[in-house]
Specification:
Length: 137
């Protein structure tokens, strides 16, 4: 169960819907504020990264590198940074896809071992017995 669902369950436990509506509104407004601050922080972080890339380019040119060579170096850095972010995005998406399965199927170690033992028994029972070699006369 997600944290938000637990919070909502605790909020609504023992209260009527009419009593909990203001708290639910405050919860939703708090979530909206967190999302807005996350978006604003992402925009500011992007501006900071762009500024750092320009500062690195200006430093390369100031130290005697040709502008085209400095531009190619910074393009390589940007491509590497983009690749790392895309990789992190795919890892995060893969992790998010597994959350419903983890929530719905809670694995009990004892039950998991018993299940594996049962499957092993059924597999062994359903397989054909090994053939004994025929005696030589």
């Amino acid at each position: 169960m997600s944290t938000i669902a637990k919070i909502l369950g605790l909020m609504l436990a023992g209260r009527s819907v009419a009593d909990s509506t203001p708290m639910f509104g405050r919860l939703l407004s708090g979530i909206a504020a967190v999302v807005a601050l996350a978006i604003l922080s992402s925009i500011l972080a992007g501006v900071l990264v762009v500024g750092m890339i320009y500062a690195a380019y200006a430093a390369l040119v100031a130290h005697g590198l040709e502008p085209n060579a400095a531009m190619m170096i910074m393009a390589g850095v940007i491509i590497i940074m983009t690749g790392l972010m895309v990789n992190q995005l795919f890892v995060t998406i893969r992790r998010i896809k597994h959350i419903p399965a983890q929530v719905l199927v809670r694995k009990n170690p004892l039950a998991e071992r018993a299940t594996k033992l049962g499957f092993a028994f059924v597999d062994g029972f359903m397989s054909q017995p090994p053939q004994a070699p025929e005696p030589k006369l």
